[in-house]
Amino acid sequence: MFKAPRGTQDILPAEQPYWQLARDKIREVSSLYGFRRIDPPLFEETGLFVRGVGETTDIVEKEMYTFKDKGGESLTLLPEGTASFMRAYLEHGMQVLPQPVKLYSTLPLFRYERPQAGRFRQHYQFNAEAIGEAHPAVDAEIIALAWSLYSSLGLKGLKLQLNSIGDSRCRPGYNKLLTTYLREHQKRLAKTDRERLSRNPLRVLDSKESASQKVIAQAPKSVEHLCEDCAAHFAGLREYLGLMGISYTLNHRLVRGLDYYTRTVFEFWAAGIGAQNAVGGGGRYDGLAKLLGGKDTPGVGFGLGLERIILAMQQQKISPPPDPGPQVYLLYHGAAAQNEAIRLAEKLRGAGIRAGVSMGGRSLKAQMKQADREGVKFALILGEKEIEKSTVTAHIMQTGEEFTVAQGQLLNWLSDRLFRR
Ligand code: HAM
């Protein structure tokens, strides 16, 4: 027997109400904030991510689903969305539109990660990106959008973690300082962190290795080494967040796992969903457009993982509205009545009534049981007598009462009871 590939899952009908609610709220809240939907393709030239996300990141080094197509071109299934958004912005000349251009999407993303609770090889991510404006109020608006989405879903107790990691002017100096400090103490770092130190020193800061914690706690903080512009930007963002009533924790160890970030980085953490507790993360990426060969263009955005959001909803006992099932069920006795039931069901559906009909030629009793399991209000019974007189017997499931209704009157009879009460 085949099984879904490791790290992937079927989202079964019973789970769909959560997904439907999340998607509805994403659309609603994105439009409240003036974001418009974009759907990039699900694979891109591999170089887009190598350049955009960064060669020394886990994503590019270990996690991409890369393949050669039959024309010999190297393509990669989207491991993240931001590089695609920026590629689309540049490719379609969106610089001529009013800035920032505010785009969103919900995409399946693919990363060859070690699967565990809340970590998948295919996950869905809601991305919102504001491209073309560097003002810190845009960063605040992006964070407010994420907050609004979480609260519209009823999620409570999330913690916003915030940091600024500087830009191409101040980061190299900070990196040097950090590297010098970490080298001085490398004997007290875990082995994996000693390796990280030479390739990507910033990533040592968010290491989970217990051996490294003491050294990391004393490491120089990026916010204390920002250039004047970056410091002013960060102060501006904090002021706007205050204005909007959004509280946060300054987290000096938050650096994020993608190389394109400049200045603002943030994450949202949820309690009670296990080690993979980040239900969203993002930041500013003012250098990305240039890395991709475009004109210097600032941008800021986030990605929120839907599986983790739904885990948090379930953990907090938030229940979405259930899927609407059928309202009526057609039951028949005999071949002629079966044809009539199929015809009538189509007619009812055409009038907006959710109608089910049992297809396998089961006994009337079995059909009634099926209607009961579907939770319908009415069973509409057709037998020889009904066919002859062009009627149906309407059986009210809750009370067992029965009415004879002329087929010509059925729509009115049902509408009265289904929609006007
Ligand atoms: P990221 O932190 O890699 O950022 O992913 C964003 C969110 O997607 C995470 O906080 C988490 O909720 C979810 N997520 C990521 N990987 C997985 C996984 N393997 N399984 C389940 N959920 C996952 C980005 O991807 C950036 N592109 C976000 C961004 C947009 N930054 C600026 N704009």
Structure overview:
By secondary structure, this protein is an alpha+beta fold. It folds into two domains: 13-170 and 226-315, BirA Bifunctional Protein, domain 2 (2-Layer Sandwich), CATH 3.30.930.10; 328-414, Rossmann fold (3-Layer(aba) Sandwich). 39% of the residues lie in helices and 20% in strands. The chain has 16 helices and 16 strands. The protein has helices spanning 16-32, 46-53, 58-63, 82-91, 136-152, 171-184, 191-199, 201-204, 213-217, 228-243, 288-291, 306-315, 335-350, 364-374, 384-389, 410-419, and strands spanning 36-37, 43-45, 66-68, 74-77, 101-110, 122-131, 159-164, 249-250, 262-269, 278-284, 299-305, 328-332, 355-357, 378-382, 391-396, 402-406. The strands form three sheets. It has an eight-stranded mixed beta sheet with strand order 1-5-6-11-10-9-7-8, sandwiched between helices. Strands 13-12-14-15-16 form a five-stranded mixed beta sheet, sandwiched between helices. A hairpin with a 5-residue loop joins strand 3 (66-68) and strand 4. Helix 1 (16-32) runs antiparallel to helix 5 (136-152) and helix 5 (136-152) packs parallel to helix 10. The longest helix has 17 residues, at 16-32. It is elongated. The mean pLDDT is 96. The chain binds histidyl-adenosine monophosphate (HAM). Histidyl-adenosine monophosphate (HAM) is lined by residues 80-82, 111, 113, 118-120, 123, 125, 127, 129, 257-258, 278-283, 301-305, 307-308.
